[in-house]
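Write out this protein's structure.
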Amino acid sequence: MKFENISIGVDLEEVQRFEKFTDKNDPFVKKIFTKAEIEYSYKDKNFAAHLAARYCAKEACVKALHSLGISGYFCRDFEVLNNEKGVPEVFIVKEKRGDNISFKLSLSHTKNYATATVLAFVN
Protein backbone atom coordinates (compact mmCIF):
# COMPACT_ATOMS: atom_id res chain seq x y z
CA MET A 1 0.00 0.00 0.00
CA LYS A 2 1.34 3.40 -0.95
CA PHE A 3 0.61 6.15 1.55
CA GLU A 4 0.57 8.84 -1.12
CA ASN A 5 -2.80 7.35 -2.15
CA ILE A 6 -4.32 7.72 1.34
CA SER A 7 -5.35 10.83 3.21
CA ILE A 8 -7.28 11.79 6.32
CA GLY A 9 -9.75 14.60 6.90
CA VAL A 10 -11.32 15.71 10.18
CA ASP A 11 -13.98 18.27 10.99
CA LEU A 12 -15.68 19.47 14.19
CA GLU A 13 -18.83 21.60 14.35
CA GLU A 14 -21.03 23.03 17.08
CA VAL A 15 -24.46 21.37 16.96
CA GLN A 16 -26.05 24.68 17.95
CA ARG A 17 -25.07 26.10 14.56
CA PHE A 18 -27.60 23.71 12.94
CA GLU A 19 -30.46 24.19 15.42
CA LYS A 20 -31.76 27.20 13.49
CA PHE A 21 -32.59 24.99 10.49
CA THR A 22 -35.94 23.80 11.86
CA ASP A 23 -37.42 23.76 8.35
CA LYS A 24 -36.08 20.97 6.18
CA ASN A 25 -36.88 23.12 3.13
CA ASP A 26 -34.44 25.84 4.22
CA PRO A 27 -32.28 26.85 1.22
CA PHE A 28 -29.04 26.05 3.07
CA VAL A 29 -30.28 22.59 4.04
CA LYS A 30 -31.41 21.79 0.49
CA LYS A 31 -28.13 23.09 -0.96
CA ILE A 32 -25.82 21.04 1.30
CA PHE A 33 -27.75 17.86 2.09
CA THR A 34 -29.31 15.21 -0.15
CA LYS A 35 -32.97 14.25 0.12
CA ALA A 36 -32.06 11.01 1.92
CA GLU A 37 -29.85 12.86 4.42
CA ILE A 38 -32.61 15.36 5.13
CA GLU A 39 -35.22 12.65 5.67
CA TYR A 40 -32.90 10.72 7.99
CA SER A 41 -31.93 13.79 10.03
CA TYR A 42 -35.38 15.29 10.46
CA LYS A 43 -37.09 12.09 11.56
CA ASP A 44 -35.34 12.58 14.93
CA LYS A 45 -36.02 15.40 17.39
CA ASN A 46 -32.22 15.80 17.60
CA PHE A 47 -32.04 16.70 13.90
CA ALA A 48 -29.34 19.34 14.44
CA ALA A 49 -26.82 16.76 15.70
CA HIS A 50 -27.47 14.56 12.67
CA LEU A 51 -27.11 17.48 10.27
CA ALA A 52 -23.93 18.65 12.02
CA ALA A 53 -22.35 15.19 11.88
CA ARG A 54 -23.14 14.82 8.19
CA TYR A 55 -21.82 18.28 7.47
CA CYS A 56 -18.60 17.32 9.30
CA ALA A 57 -18.29 14.22 7.12
CA LYS A 58 -18.67 16.26 3.96
CA GLU A 59 -16.09 18.82 5.10
CA ALA A 60 -13.70 16.04 6.14
CA CYS A 61 -14.04 14.49 2.66
CA VAL A 62 -13.16 17.79 1.00
CA LYS A 63 -10.11 18.16 3.28
CA ALA A 64 -8.92 14.60 2.68
CA LEU A 65 -9.20 14.93 -1.09
CA HIS A 66 -7.50 18.31 -1.06
CA SER A 67 -4.54 16.70 0.76
CA LEU A 68 -4.32 14.24 -2.13
CA GLY A 69 -4.24 17.08 -4.65
CA ILE A 70 -7.82 16.45 -5.76
CA SER A 71 -9.87 19.64 -5.98
CA GLY A 72 -13.26 20.60 -7.31
CA TYR A 73 -15.35 18.66 -4.77
CA PHE A 74 -17.72 20.48 -2.42
CA CYS A 75 -19.97 19.44 0.47
CA ARG A 76 -22.94 18.92 -1.83
CA ASP A 77 -20.96 16.33 -3.80
CA PHE A 78 -21.06 13.80 -0.93
CA GLU A 79 -23.86 11.79 0.65
CA VAL A 80 -23.72 10.19 4.09
CA LEU A 81 -26.06 7.23 4.57
CA ASN A 82 -26.26 4.44 7.10
CA ASN A 83 -25.83 0.93 5.72
CA GLU A 84 -28.08 -2.01 6.66
CA LYS A 85 -26.14 -2.41 9.93
CA GLY A 86 -26.61 1.27 10.84
CA VAL A 87 -22.99 2.17 10.09
CA PRO A 88 -22.57 5.54 8.35
CA GLU A 89 -20.89 5.49 4.96
CA VAL A 90 -20.00 8.32 2.59
CA PHE A 91 -20.39 8.30 -1.18
CA ILE A 92 -19.67 10.72 -3.98
CA VAL A 93 -23.04 11.76 -5.40
CA LYS A 94 -21.76 12.38 -8.92
CA GLU A 95 -18.39 11.27 -10.17
CA LYS A 96 -16.73 14.35 -11.55
CA ARG A 97 -13.75 13.05 -13.47
CA GLY A 98 -13.89 9.31 -13.05
CA ASP A 99 -11.73 9.57 -9.92
CA ASN A 100 -11.49 6.15 -8.29
CA ILE A 101 -12.04 7.24 -4.68
CA SER A 102 -13.18 5.21 -1.66
CA PHE A 103 -13.85 6.40 1.88
CA LYS A 104 -13.97 5.10 5.43
CA LEU A 105 -15.96 7.25 7.84
CA SER A 106 -16.37 7.65 11.57
CA LEU A 107 -19.02 10.01 13.01
CA SER A 108 -19.69 11.07 16.57
CA HIS A 109 -21.79 13.70 18.31
CA THR A 110 -22.70 14.95 21.74
CA LYS A 111 -25.30 17.51 22.75
CA ASN A 112 -22.89 20.30 21.83
CA TYR A 113 -20.48 19.01 19.19
CA ALA A 114 -20.34 16.76 16.14
CA THR A 115 -17.22 15.38 14.51
CA ALA A 116 -16.21 13.22 11.59
CA THR A 117 -13.01 11.53 10.55
CA VAL A 118 -12.60 10.37 6.96
CA LEU A 119 -9.95 8.24 5.31
CA ALA A 120 -9.84 8.73 1.56
CA PHE A 121 -8.27 6.12 -0.72
CA VAL A 122 -7.44 6.68 -4.38
CA ASN A 123 -6.81 3.57 -6.45
